[in-house]
């Protein structure tokens, strides 16, 4: 029950899974997400979580499998997305079913159906959906509402949920989220940016990202093709010339049929695809970084920020997966005082709140010598980092911390140092300017005094102006 280990985490994970799916669906629909989250206490330890969105809706034939089957996902193409392996929402449904014996309720409307309401459970033994009821019920707009009842500790989860939603508007600044708890607490968040991100273009898998599972799936789809056709049609970055070169390198006849390779040959084939160095780098149109202007607008809208710097690195590649890292180093009184920046982690536009001490990014953060860049406990500083990729190297199925991938670690380290240098320069400049201003005031005061004394000594009634002297000395206008 990854991510559902205790009653507090269960509430948090349920909200997170439902909100992630809603945001993914709004990306598909190319709309500004409007997402309502309502949590109600039913008894002292049973709650309902209801999340509504204005996404694409779920086609009726998909509803039972999407919500009532573990490991069913519709997102198998290579592209950045929040959901990972079709595990999310069904885990929440299962947890609700196990702890309160109640079905999940799904009310959805697509372009083609005016509205359907489902109640369903998971047949755990067979990993199949059990539809308890299905009825037509009109829904005002296209989109989906999901209601899960579960046992959980709302009081303890409340702050985490609010934090999660606040940070979700940092990574998805064009989304508007509302949170209602027991009709009492009501928070509106987001809509910091009016621009929709560039559309994400799903791509075919890159040959270097192929493992046995991907190869098996592709083979079952294109089983009748010969090796040459299979390579050219299943992968990005392989055309006839690259395919011929690769097959020569493998010493394989291009006319052999993919499904007729022996098991050993298939293993070697997958291995060679990962190791062969003649493929171009993977496509990056399937990624959606937050971008400088949106990332800055969002952080400065959510936090009280005095100064912020943005930098990004990429597109780079890890094991055939393209990735971009972008980050903001911000100064402001909202952040805790420490001699290293407070870290806020985001992957594929999802904030990560748990297990930060296990995360490789925390380790990288600690490797940087922040005192060199004037980061100290007297000036609160935070670092917001976003990694986006077609695959995220999570440490565990709970999707809360990143494992060590040397390429990513190296890039993150360089990025942190670059931001440190930028902020260091600015804070040195601002300290210098504070010193200069003080000096200028003192000079200006002394000059006026000297002018007054000299005039009195010389018997003049009029005291000459000394401003021009200060101006010459500091090359600025003196203030009064
Ligand atoms: N709010 C929603 N709008 C549209 N489709 C949804 C929604 N929630 C779930 N789905 C569908 O259900 C599938 C399974 O969801 P989930 O188990 O969370 O897996 P994942 O998000 O990893 O694909 C999704 O791939 C999607 O097709
Ligand atoms: Mg999901």
Helix count, DSSP H or I runs of 4 or more residues:
12
In CATH terms, what is the architecture of the largest domain? 2-Layer Sandwich
Quick one: overall form? globular
Question: Fraction of residues in helices?
Answer: 25-40%
Structural class: alpha+beta
Biggest sheet: strand arrangement: 5-4-3-6-2-1-7-8
Task: Return the CATH class of the largest domain.
Answer: Alpha Beta
Bound small molecules, deduplicated = adenosine-5'-diphosphate, magnesium ion
- Tell me what portion of residues adopts beta-strand conformation: 15-25%
Distance between the termini: 67 Å
Task: Work out the oligomeric state of the chains in this entry.
Answer: single chain
How many separate domains? 4
Largest sheet: 8 strands, mixed
DSSP strand count: 13
CATH superfamily of the largest domain: Histidine kinase-like ATPase, C-terminal domain
Polypeptide structure, described:
With 480 residues, the chain is of the alpha+beta class. It has four domains: 7-190, Heat Shock Protein 90 (2-Layer Sandwich), CATH 3.30.565; 207-275, Helicase, Ruva Protein, domain 3, CATH 1.10.8.50; 292-426, 2-Layer Sandwich (Ribosomal Protein S5, domain 2), CATH 3.30.230; 429-474. The protein contains twelve helices and 13 strands. The protein has helices at 7-29, 63-68, 88-100, 154-171, 212-222, 227-234, 240-250, 263-275, 292-302, 360-367, 406-458, 467-474; strands at 34-41, 46-52, 104-109, 116-123, 128-136, 143-151, 176-181, 185-190, 307-318, 321-331, 342-347, 350-352, 381-389. The strands form two sheets. It has an eight-stranded mixed sheet. A hairpin with a 2-residue loop joins strand 9 (307-318) and strand 10. The model has no long low-confidence stretch (mean pLDDT 91).
């Amino acid at each position: 029950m990854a991510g559902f280990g205790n009653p507090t985490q269960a509430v948090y994970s349920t909200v997170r899974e439902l909100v992630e799916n809603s945001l993914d669906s709004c990306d598909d629909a190319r709309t500004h997400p409007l997402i309502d989250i309502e949590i109600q206490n039913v008894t002292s330890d049973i709650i309902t979580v209801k999340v509504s969105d204005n996404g694409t809706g779920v086609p009726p034939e998909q509803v039972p499998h999407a919500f009532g089957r573990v490991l069913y996902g519709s997102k198998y193409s290579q592209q950045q997305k929040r959901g990972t392996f079709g595990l999310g929402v069904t885990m929440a449904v299962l947890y609700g079913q196990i702890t309160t014996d109640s079905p999940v309720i799904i009310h959805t409307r697509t372009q083609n159906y005016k509205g359907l309401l489902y109640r369903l459970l998971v047949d755990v033994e067979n990993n199949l959906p059990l539809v308890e009821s299905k009825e037509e019920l009109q829904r005002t707009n296209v989109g989906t509402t999901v209601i899960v009842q579960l046992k959980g500790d709302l009081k303890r989860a409340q702050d985490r949920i609010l934090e999660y939603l606040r940070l979700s508007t940092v990574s998805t600044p064009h989304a508007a989220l509302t949170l209602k708890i027991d009709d009492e607490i009501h928070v509106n968040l987001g809509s910091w940016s009016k621009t929709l991100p560039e559309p994400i273009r799903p791509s075919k898998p890159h040959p270097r990202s192929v493992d046995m599972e991907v190869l098996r799936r592709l083979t079952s789809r294109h089983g009748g093709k010969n090796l040459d056709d299979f390579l050219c049609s299943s992968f990005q970055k392989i055309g006839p010339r690259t395919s011929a070169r690769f097959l020569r390198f493998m010493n394989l006849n291009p006319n052999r049929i993919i499904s007729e390779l022996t098991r050993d040959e298939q293993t070697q084939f997958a291995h060679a695809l990962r190791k062969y160095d003649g493929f171009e780098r993977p496509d990056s149109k399937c990624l959606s970084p937050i971008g400088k202007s949106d990332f800055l607008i969002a952080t400065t809208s959510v936090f009280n920020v005095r100064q912020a710097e943005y930098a990004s690195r990429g597109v780079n590649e890890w094991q055939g997966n393209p990735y971009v890292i972008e980050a903001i180093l911000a100064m402001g009184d909202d952040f805790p005082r420490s001699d290293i920046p407070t870290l806020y982690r985001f992957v594929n536009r999802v904030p990560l709140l748990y297990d930060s001490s296990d995360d490789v990014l925390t380790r990288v953060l600690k490797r940087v010598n922040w005192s060199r860049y004037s980061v100290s406990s007297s000036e609160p500083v935070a670092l917001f980092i976003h990694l986006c990729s077609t695959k995220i190297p999570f440490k565990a199925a709970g999707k809360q911390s990143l494992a060590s991938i040397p390429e990513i670690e190296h890039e993150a380290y360089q990025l942190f140092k670059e931001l440190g240098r930028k902020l260091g320069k600015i804070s040195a400049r601002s300290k210098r300017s504070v010193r200069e201003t003080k000096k200028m005031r003192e000079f200006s005061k002394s000059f006026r005094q000297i002018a007054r004394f000299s005039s009195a000594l010389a018997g003049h009634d009029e005291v000459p102006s000394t401003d021009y002297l200060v101006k010459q000395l500091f090359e600025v206008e003196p203030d009064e």
